[in-house]
Amino acid sequence: MSISVTDVSKFYGRQQALKSASFEVKSGEIVGFLGPNGAGKSTMMKILTGYLPASSGKVAVCGLDVTENSIELRRKIGYLPEHNPLYTDMYVTEYLRFVGGIYHLPDIKTRVEEMIEMTGLRPECHKKIRMLSKGYRQRVGLAQALLPDPEVLILDEPTTGFDPNQVADVRNLIRTLGKSKTILLSTHIMQEVQAICERVIIIHQGQIVADEKTAKLDTIHTAGDTIIEVEFDRQPAPEQLIAIQGIMRADYNGSSWVITSQPSSDVRGSIFRFAVENDLILLGMKQQKQSLEDVFQALTTK
How far apart are CA 258 and CA 33, in angstroms? Predict the structure, then answer.
């Protein structure tokens, strides 16, 4: 197991940022770590990387206890924090070679050149970091995180400041890296999670409230109503549909009926029987799936 978090809590004075949080990330997984502002995402990431100690609980990365093996652990983790700290008076290449020296890399120049190519820094590598756009500064931070060829990558808002083309490039890079590394990715961009991540963990008020494969997010039960789109060969009266047990609302959009039923109430069988009893041909019936945004909002606005 690349990442193992067991009953981790964190206090800042009297304020509790994490409440007995537990989860695991297997080797080679790309996992999205989501939550509203102040939910505890950045705190958890800082604990995973050894920047902050947990108040209680146990954290292990690559089989190493974070508290007992802090120095050895940092050789195995690449970390891009949300607020990317850089020495802005250094040139890009100079800075990356400096970081490579800290890691005691055997062939620093070659490794830095590889990272410049991999992260798309070639057009800007001759500049001082303070002259770079926010997107290119993020690329420098990503190159720094990748320099020691870590087993685990922890990325906090990695595409902040990127234009759409840059976002696409970095998404492709993360997918490629995910074939050989474990990646924990925090972002507020839901499309990014759905495009990259195999699994999603949602944290709210310091607690893990969801942990599911991205493809199965629609199976997470929330308090939201169930929406079904139905098409008949001819149109019944709306009051006939509303009379079906479990249906709360029926709206016609010009081609089909959009039916709202009570939470966790499956009315598809009742709709089929209604069609048979009223000599209607059921041309189509489709239940709308919850999007990641629907699930996120339902779980973090309680």
Answer: 33
Q: State the residue range of the domain holding 68.
A: 3-219
Asked which of 203, 219, 235 is the last residue of a domain, the reply is 219
Q: What's the number of domains the chain is made of?
A: 2
Longest distance between any two alpha carbons in the chain, whole Å: 78
Q: What is the CATH number of the domain that holds 270?
A: 3.30.70.100
Question: Which two tokens mark 98?
Answer: 């400096």
Pair 119, 95: CB distance under 8 Å: no
Whether residues 98 and 239 share a domain: the answer is no
Tell me: do 208 and 118 sit in the same domain. yes
In tens, the pLDDT along 218-251 reads: 656 555 567 889 999 999 999 999 999 889 889 8
Do 151 and 76 form a contact (C-beta atoms < 8 A)?
Answer: yes
Using alpha carbons only, give the angle 47, 77, 103 rounded to the nearest 5 degrees: 120
Higher confidence at residue 302 or residue 200?
Answer: 200
Residue 161 has pLDDT above 60, yes or no: yes
One DSSP character per residue, the chain reads --EEEEEEEEEETTEEEEEEEEEEE-TT-EEEEE--TTSSHHHHHHHHTTSS--SEEEEEETTEETTTTHHHHHTTEEEE-SS----TTSBHHHHHHHHHHHTT-TTHHHHHHHHHHHTT-GGGTTSBGGGS-HHHHHHHHHHHHHTT--SEEEEESTTTT--HHHHHHHHHHHHHHTTTSEEEEE-S-HHHHHHH-SEEEEEETTEEEEEEEGGGGGGS--SPPEEEEEEESSPPPHHHHHTSTTEEEEEE-SSSEEEEE-TT---HHHHHHHHHHTT--EEEEEEPPPPHHHHHHHHH--
- Give residue-wise pLDDT tens across range 22-45: 999 998 899 999 998 889 998 999
Last residue in a domain, options 219, 253, 271: 219
